[in-house]
């Protein structure tokens, strides 16, 4: 195997839950709780429903539970369906590799299917985050490749840990996961489609399948990184991969979200919900949003997609539209699922507010930005000349401005309230918060199958 692959295998082989710092385990639990809550809020979505309809009835030696479906299905497919639900609201976490919690659904599915306990889930999630995040932070430039390229390797690493694969099986799993998987970043630009919610879950599903192939004995190319026509020749410039040495850990460096919207809009939403207090909203004449280049390019029309951002025609584009998010936060004081109702996309009053919004990038803010730091300034000017403004670097949920356990729990309770009765929601919550001590995931999985039941 090549040097990079060997380093990945060495790292996977070294992970033991008992060696993880308590604060690392705590963050794994918080991110699992948060992700399941997002799934409860998104399991009725169209992408999740389509995914369920396609994979319904699949079976095999390893099966796992799907949100809102009584029968278990093939483990890879279960991870895909639940992953699409987890991602749909754009409420799940954010990190250097994109939305690393997109990998959690397949880890939970694999653990359920193999009757693993909570300790194995913790190890699998930790491993997946470390691999995906370290890769993302090591690559000199991602070019046009989407975040699923990191998640494919993260999932294979995490599941290798859950399945207890040998070193050779782990090497094959990683190779089989990445060699056929180089997704395109076009998923996230222009008018966005339902694929936005399914892209990384799909990469995770194929990585789960690859890992099961390796577990059954299939071999993969031994030099997927450094070999002829490998990743370093075809996709990325070569880099020196160092795993497991960063402190704090990858999952401790990842952010949770206070609002169901693109991460790059979180600071602007935070600011606007504060600035609006006491203002006569009917007298707002202009709103100037100045931000870092990452936010400007992702959701501010900075890649020639101005029209798509100022007139979003899909929910997926609306939650990645800075003008839509800022206008909604100004008008409503918050961002929730009602924000994205179909009628809102053509609401003339909201569109009129959006037309008074400008979004630009600024060099000094870009210079202060990092992969997850998004300096943003918002200036609101009223018709009488009153000006209110604020600048902020970190949104609520970032490690530098963290959500408390009670905030995470409240977010979970709110999202799960539409999927389970109060008593069942409380029981699911209790089991998730107690994840490291669980000997089985069957209690959690039973609640998954009950989502939406009368």
TrEMBL record:
Gene Ontology terms, MF aspect: lyase activity
Gene3D superfamilies: 2-methylcitrate dehydratase PrpD
Residues covered by the MmgE/PrpD C-terminal domain: 259-424
Domain MmgE/PrpD N-terminal: 6-241
TM annotation in the entry: none
Superkingdom, natural source: Bacteria
UniProt-listed InterPro entries: MmgE/PrpD_sf, MmgE/PrpD_sf_1, MmgE/PrpD_sf_2, MmgE_PrpD, MmgE_PrpD_C, MmgE_PrpD_N
Pfam families: MmgE_PrpD_C (PF19305), MmgE_PrpD_N (PF03972)
UniProt similarity note: Belongs to the PrpD family.
Name by which UniProt lists this protein: 2-methylcitrate dehydratase
Natural source organism: Microbacterium pygmaeum
């Amino acid at each position: 195997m090549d040097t990079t692959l060997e380093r990945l295998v060495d790292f996977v082989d070294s992970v033991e839950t008992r060696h993880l710092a308590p604060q690392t385990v705590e963050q794994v639990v918080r991110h699992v709780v948060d992700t399941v809550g997002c799934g409860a809020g998104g399991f009725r979505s169209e992408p999740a429903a389509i995914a369920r309809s396609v994979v319904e009835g699949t079976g095999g030696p390893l099966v796992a539970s799907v949100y809102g479906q009584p029968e278990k299905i093939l483990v890879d497919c279960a991870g895909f369906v639940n992953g699409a639900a987890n991602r749909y609201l754009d409420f799940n976490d954010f990190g250097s590799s994109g939305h690393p919690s997109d990998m959690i659904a397949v880890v939970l599915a694999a653990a359920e299917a193999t009757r693993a306990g909570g300790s194995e889930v913790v190890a699998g999630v930790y491993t997946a985050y470390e691999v995906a995040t370290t890769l993302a932070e090591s690559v000199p430039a991602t070019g046009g490749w989407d975040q699923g390229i990191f998640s494919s390797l993260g999932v294979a690493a995490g599941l290798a840990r859950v399945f207890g694969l040998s070193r050779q099986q782990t090497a094959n799993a990683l190779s089989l996961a990445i060699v056929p998987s180089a997704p395109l970043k076009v998923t996230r630009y222009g008018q966005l489609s339902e694929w936005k919610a399914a892209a990384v879950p799909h990469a995770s599903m194929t990585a789960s399948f690859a890992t099961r192939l390796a577990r059954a004995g299939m071999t993969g190319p031994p030099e997927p990184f450094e070999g002829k026509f490998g990743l370093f020749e075809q996709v990325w410039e070569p880099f020196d991969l160092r795993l497991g040495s960063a402190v704090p850990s990858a999952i401790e460096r990842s952010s949770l979200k206070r609002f169901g919207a693109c991460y790059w809009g979180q600071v602007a939403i935070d600011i606007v919900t504060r600035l609006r207090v006491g203002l006569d909203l009917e007298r707002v004449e202009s709103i100037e949003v100045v931000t870092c280049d990452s936010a400007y390019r992702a959701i501010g029309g900075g890649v020639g997609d101005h029209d798509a951002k100022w007139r979003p025609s899909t929910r997926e584009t609306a939650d990645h539209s800075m003008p839509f998010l800022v206008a909604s936060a100004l008008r409503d004081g918050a961002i929730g699922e009602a924000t994205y109702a179909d009628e809102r996309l053509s609401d003339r009053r909201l569109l009129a507010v959006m037309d008074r919004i400008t979004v630009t990038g600024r060099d000094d803010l870009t210079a202060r930005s990092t992969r997850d730091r998004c300096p943003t300034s918002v200036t609101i000017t009223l018709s009488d000349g009153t000006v209110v403004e604020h600048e902020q670097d970190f949104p609520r949920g970032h490690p530098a401005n963290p959500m408390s356990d009670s905030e995470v729990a409240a977010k979970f309770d709110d999202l799960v309230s539409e999927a389970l009765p109060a008593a069942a929601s409380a029981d699911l919550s209790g089991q998730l918060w107690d994840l490291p001590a669980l000997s089985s995931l069957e209690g959690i999985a039973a609640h998954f199958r009950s989502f939406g039941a009368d």
